[in-house]
Amino acid sequence: MTAESERVVDLNADLGEEVTDDEALLGLVTSANVACGYHAGSPAIMRAVCATAAARGVSVGAQVSYADRAGFGRLPLDVPADVLREQVADQVGTLSEIASSEGVAVRYLKPHGALYHRVRDDEEQASAVLAGSGTLPVLGMPGALLTLAAAAGREVIGEGFPDRAYDGDRLRPRDRPGAVLTEDDAIVAQALALAGSVRSLCLHGDTPGAVAHTRAVRTALEGAGWTLVGL
Q: Which residues are listed as membrane-spanning (predicted)?
């Protein structure tokens, strides 16, 4: 059955990035993309997010990135495939160990920032991310990463972004006008339009007003008859 026929959708947010109210967002989302220390976060922050996620029944995913804390993981980098593979394995391993100690499992993988966009087109980088992440389901937009994951027999999960403008099937680059949506009405309208075409909707935790936006989206989805279920 499709997500639309089931009327089930996931609401995820990027957490553990030290730039938003993790506690409040964990009361609204059904899945948490936890920063694994390479673009933001620390073991202590990962532990706090995982502990709260466990208490609230929120699914935990590994949000892996290039090693780019200065650029918040949004700086395009050329990283050799073998190095990237080991970096991804390190991030997934660190979060998995912490999550397990808090009584939850890492349920999926999601690249962050520049890596997210790179692996839609770059098969070598996509293969490195897959090689470093075991057999975890993969969350993302259509492209090389999801195609290769599916070919390898891994679960793939389609994702959409209520708080970002699209140019065709791509997110508008952040350096262009209107790339980030900031009004609740526009964000809610896009969330409702995307629900059913994707399994998961992402609200960016570092966007000003992220908690209010996420609350508005959740309220609208539930009001429209969608059941929110984590990954």
A: none
pLDDT in tens, 141-190: 999 999 999 999 999 999 999 999 999 999 999 999 999 999 999 999 99
CATH 3.20.20.370 holds for 3-228: yes
pTM, whole model, 2 decimals? 0.94
DSSP H or E stretch at residue 128: helix 123-131
Secondary structure of 56-124 in HEC code, one letter for each residue:
HCCEEEEEECCCCCCCCCCCCCCCCHHHHHHHHHHHHHHHHHHHHHCCCCEEEEEECHHHHHHCCCCHH
Q: What is the pLDDT of residues 86-129, one digit of tens each?
A: 999 999 999 999 999 999 999 999 999 999 999 999 999 999 99
C-alpha radius of gyration, the chain, whole number: 16
Question: How far apart are alpha carbons 57 and 62 in whole angstroms?
Answer: 16
| Interstrand relation of 59-64 and 106-111 (parallel, antiparallel or unpaired) | parallel
CA 21 from centre of chain: 16
Closest to 30 in 3D by CA, of 220, 191, 203, 208: 203
For the chain, domain boundaries: 3-228
